[in-house]
Amino acid sequence: MQVFFMKGIAKLLTLKVSQVRHGVFFASFAMVAGGIRSVSAQDPAPPAPNVGPAPAVILAASPSAATAPAPAVEVASTPVPAAAPASAPAVAAAPSPSSAPAPASAPAAAPTPAPAAPAPATPAKDEEFVLESATLVMGPKAEPRRVRQPVHEYFTVFDPQAGGRQSIEQKVNPFVAYTNLGTDFGFIGTGQEGIGWEKGMVSIAMPPDKWGGMWHSLAGLGSDEDYVLDFLACYPPYVAAKFQPKVVGLEIRAKGKGTFKLEIKSADQKMLWEKVFNVDSPDMRTFVEPLDARAIGHAKFLNWVAEGGADLLLDSVALQLEAPAIPFDEYVFLASYAKLARCFSMRTAYVRDRAHIRDGYFDNVPTCGLFALGTALAAKRGIVADQFAIDLAERIDDNISHLDNARGLLPHFVKRGQDGRYHILPGTEYSTVDTAIYYHAMLLAAEILEHQELKERVIAAVRAIGVDDIMLDSEGYIRHGLREDKVTPLRAVWRDWGGETALVLAMGAMTSKPPPFRMASTGRVYDGTGFIAEVQSLFYPDFNDPTPDAITKQNWPASRKTLLERQKEYFPKHWPESEAAQRGFYGLSAGEARHGMGYLVAGVDLPGMTIIHPHYVLMSGCTGDKPADVYDVLRRMEESHLFPPWGMVEHFTKDVDEYLPMLGALNASFECISAYHLMMSSRGTKNELYEASMRNELLRRGASIFYPSSSAVTSFADSNLGSPSGAR
Q1: Would you say residue 499 lies in a domain?
Q2: Lowest CB count within 10 Å: 299, 596, 610, 637, which one?
Q3: How many angstroms separate the Cα of 423 from the Cα of each of 283, 377, 402, 410?
Q4: How far is CA 62 from CA 345, 383, 393, in A?
Q5: How many CB atoms lie within 10 A of CB 394?
Q6: By C-alpha distance, which of 198, 90, 108, 117 is closest to 154?
Q7: Quick one: which of 703, 708, 711, 709 has its CA closest to 509?
Q8: Is the domain of 149 the same as that of 76?
Q9: Strands (E), 654-704
Q10: Which helix or strand (DSSP H or E) is residue 205 part of?
Q11: CA-to-CA distance for 577 and 137, rounded, in angstroms?
Q12: Mean pLDDT over each residue of the chain, to the nearest integer
């Protein structure tokens, strides 16, 4: 049936072209149709994994959002045979090993370089027409690509003090004591005093009779031997095989003079791969080695060890991956989902606030709901099995429903106590906006998964929330929440115009005793902070309606578009010579501050902003007129190593000379859901999330306080809300 359908479409598209084009066009469709038919026959749906107790071995959950092509190899290296000690990475909290190193074997022979791929033939005009028309019918084309995933960029290791070489005593900024994979690292060997810091790099001045190096966990914490990285399938094991990247190479950048060894080890310290390098160059060189993913299998550690007398500077170590052959727009969603998945624990069914934090130490409640929603969307794309998404949503709901609450409000963060139960993290709050985000996400997940029992449980929990009495200030504005004593209200209130306040009011409308609906009517978000203008549209298509809303009388899509234009203009206006201005990067929003030290709220109303939080690029993706322009920005980010397979970086500087690779759950969630909306908008296809939002009776109640007529609309496709510039 697919073949006949596509031939019919092809006939319509080629009705006025020449016979030559007509014949080529039909031949192309016959090939495509046959390919689809054979793929569907060869690739049956994978069995649904069970979200039960954690297995003995937990494969690495790699999050996110991004990929970057490997840099060109600057020089081909032929290693000189040398004796280099093997390392034994310490998997306990202390970075130093407990066992003495074994002598290294001689290096393997240099591999024969792979033949260069033939240059693609230039298509004739007729062929171009055929390809464009085929893309129109079939959707975006698949893009098999090789991409670069840093294991560790060493500018994040040390807390910079003054210029020049510094000693190991000054190493390791505790705020960035993690790798680009969301794992930990440590130092090994008898010559750790020979490892220091020079701006942007690790410096090595190894004493003649010593050896030393670094270990990097490839999955989870080094002390957690259950988490390993499958080199054949780098994303979590519940991701379908079609969407899995695999490791095909290893890259290290170094300069100086001396010998060092790279090694890949299993959790039980078995050597899976090793290679000795001899460096003799005053200039930074990129060394690339092919890897056999099948031969390596499941690995835990990537180590480098410098032998005595080495005088080197190391810039970075990275993996080269073969990305799945899928269209780029789908890859953006996949990588964003995988970034969030790396923060999720299969053991606990909680989402860690950051990927590199130990399970149960600092877990994020609203992102648990957002992960359930992202997984439901992933199931609709065939990335995970439907049953996996259902089981996961049930486990998350069971966890959160057993937490202590305050007037129905959920804690923002939780921690596992000595009694094994989860409690509010000391010093944090029961939060109105985070409760709103969690329940909006869970309502949508239940609706998308058509899980009636789950939906009824979530509805009952929302109806029981109390946002009256002490939750209101003297003017009727809703407070940010309650302190951990469950009684003392926070002083701050939701007054500012924007998406956070809108979500809190919408949640209030869903409760059994709705509060007053009050909100500033400025049409401008606080300080021009990016995400605040977009967060409501993660859940509701209604805010794409140019009709002034009933509470603030503002045209939301117009306000959002104005902010987007100001975001794009900020760096060309204030920093015209910056790399951000030259490459069209933007995103003044909120997230981790520079070097991960503190929290930064940036915006276009503030002068001198230099840190870009790129989640806004995706969150505002549907606000602009051309989704293709957003994908162009994401490709440029990928080229600049800001969007690797493990996920979009947390932030980067205006000159793109430094970035923070932290895998944070909240921004990963925003990126994941936004990437889905952008893909659906770009393709003009059914948006399952927005359809669910229009079907769900409780969400219709929340939307109706802003758009009263929306309560009668039950289909996004029939609502004419497809773009912010569209009208009913």
Answers
A1: no
A2: 610
A3: 53, 29, 10, 11
A4: 12, 14, 20
A5: 19
A6: 198
A7: 703
A8: yes
A9: 659-660
A10: strand 201-205
A11: 42
A12: 83
Q: Kindly tell me the burial class for residue 100, based on how many C-beta atoms sit within 10 Å of its own C-beta (0-12, 13-18, 19 or more).
A: exposed
**Per-residue tokens: 404:** 């202590």
Interatomic CA distance for residues 165 and 201, integer angstroms: 10
- Contact 213/304 with Cβ under 8 angstroms? yes
Cα radius of gyration rounded to whole Å, the chain: 27
User: How confident is the model at residue 176, as a pLDDT?
Assistant: 60
Strand order in the sheet with 227-230: 58-59, 227-230, 298-299
**Which residue's structure tokens are 């499958």?**
230
| Count of other CB atoms within 10 angstroms of residue 568 | 19
> DSSP of 356-379, one letter per residue?
TSPTTTSEEHHHHHHHHHHHHHHH
The count of domains in the chain is: 3
Q: Strand 430-431 to strand 422-424: parallel, antiparallel, or no bridges (unpaired)? A: unpaired
Residue 695's CB is within 10 A of a number of other CB atoms, namely 17
Q: Residue 710: CB partners within 8 Å, gap ≥ 6?
A: 542, 545, 694, 700, 703, 704, 719
Confidence of residue 425 (pLDDT cuts 50, 70, 90): very high
How deeply is 689 buried, as exposed, middle or buried, from its count of CB atoms within 10 A (0-12, 13-18, 19+)? buried
Q: Is residue 595 part of a domain?
A: yes
Q: Which residue has the tokens 């290296």?
A: 77
pLDDT for the residue numbered 171: 52
How far is residue 148's CA from residue 392's CA, in Å, rounded to a whole number? 31
Please report where in the chains the tokens 């859901």 appear, as a residue. 673
Tell whether 671 is covered by a domain.
yes
pLDDT in tens, 567-603: 999 999 999 999 999 999 999 999 999 888 889 999 9
Task: Tally DSSP H helices, then E strands, for the chain.
Answer: 17, 22
| 36 and 148 housed in the same domain | no
CA–CA dist 406, 640 (Å, integer): 45
d(CA 134, CA 717): 25
User: How far is residue 433's CA from residue 438's CA, in Å, rounded to a whole number?
Assistant: 9
Of 322, 356, 386, the one marking the end of a domain is 322
- Where do we find the tokens 């190899």? 73
**In this structure, are residues 379 and 386 in contact, taking their beta carbons and an 8 Å threshold?**
yes
Q: How many residues does the chain have?
A: 728
3-state SS class at 689: helix
Domain of 610, CATH number, reads: 1.50.10.140
CA distance 611 to 591: 10
Can you give the pLDDT at residue 357?
93
What three-state secondary structure class fits 129? helix
Average pLDDT over residues 661-673: 97
Residues 266, 153 share a domain: yes
Distance CA 643, CA 438 (A): 27
Range of the structural domain that residue 638 is part of: 524-686
pLDDT in tens, 118-177: 344 334 333 333 333 333 445 688 888 999 999 999 876 555 454 444 454 445 554 568
Residue position matching structure tokens 């449980």: 457
